[in-house]
Amino acid sequence: MTGTNMTGLVGSGEKRTGRLKDLTVRWSFMVPSIVLMVLLLAYPIFYTIEISLTRFDIATFSAGAWVGLDNYREVMADYRFWDSLWVTLVYLVIALPLQVALGFGIAFLINAEWAGRGFIRALFIIPMVVAPVVAGGIWRMMLDPLWGIVNHWLGFIGIGPLDWFGDPALAMATIIIIDTWRWTPFIVLIATAALLALPKDVFEAAKIDGANWWSTLWSVAIPLLIPVIAATFVIRWLGAVKMFDIVLASTYGGPGKATNVINLFIYEEAFRSLRFAESAAMAVIVLVLTMVLTALFLRGTRVLEDRY
To answer: Is pLDDT at 158 greater than 70 in this prediction?
Structure first.
């Protein structure tokens, strides 16, 4: 074997060793995160799946006799489960588009040049730092049918008093209002960062061409922001599908079952009715549905990114 070949083999061997060391170093930094994810995420999921396939033993608080898919069949035959899914769907279909539209619209307004916009930006941070239970309690006092300040204001224009929590139709609207008040500022922050990252020359060109505020928003800003809007929708979807705390603090699923979202229903079945195995089956079904819909949304986001 010639010296050139030997040198080449040694060089390629050193490169492979270097790549292996580099890969080992990279994975060594990821190991703590992987361990935490396995302990905090993977284990609870697999434990929930195990419980859903057994008859839960209350005495030992652990999985009991294996029953296969019996719990899933029982859940699928329970109309209350489907009613809760429907309530959750109604909330998601109305709240998510409303919050995204408001968030990007408000971000466009507060990024325009006008006096006092810095103070307004600071105000939008307040709902984000308020605990959900506190937010639900505050809104419950504000919307009280007898003593609430909202009904007091509506009385000046001849409306009300409205039973915000006692009327089934208004109760869902109330949940959406509270949730929108709390989460729209989060979308405003994302939209503000996206607007600041847009190329300024495009807006300057639109201004030179005589485009007004609406034309600039509709024809320039929105097309450039469509991938960001889609990604923001997915992020907010992942948070909204877990809706629980605001409903628990404000309506507790009432009146009747008008605001009984799926997570509250699962909680009630598990910790009130002690149907842990059936509740685990519900949680697994919701997890699968969420994963499927999230995959579809992510696919749609990629298509929009490629198109725009």
So the answer is: yes
- Which residues, at least 6 apart from 195, have a Cβ–Cβ distance to it below 8 Å? 107, 108, 111, 221, 225
Residues 82, 130: Cα–Cα separation, whole Å: 32
* Of the candidate ranges 2-6, 32-36, 160-164, 214-218, the one whose mean pLDDT is the lowest: 2-6
Q: Show Cβ contacts of residue 285 under 8 Å, excluding neighbours closer than 6 positions.
A: 72, 75
Identify which of 21-30, 74-83, 161-170, 204-213 has the greatest average pLDDT. Answer: 74-83
CA-to-CA distance for 232 and 230, rounded, in angstroms?
Answer: 5
Other C-beta atoms closer than 10 Å to the C-beta of 85 total 17
Distances (CA, A) of 142 to 138, 139, 160, 173, 244: 6, 5, 14, 15, 20
Q: Which of 206, 264, 251, 221 is nearest to 105 (CA)?
A: 221
Q: Is the separation of the CB atoms in 161 and 145 below 8 Å? A: yes
Preceding peptide of 185 cis, ω within 30°: no
Q: What angle do CA 169, 95, 253 make, to 5 degrees?
A: 45
Q: Place domain 70-307 in its CATH homologous superfamily.
A: MetI-like (1.10.3720.10)
pTM of the model: 0.83
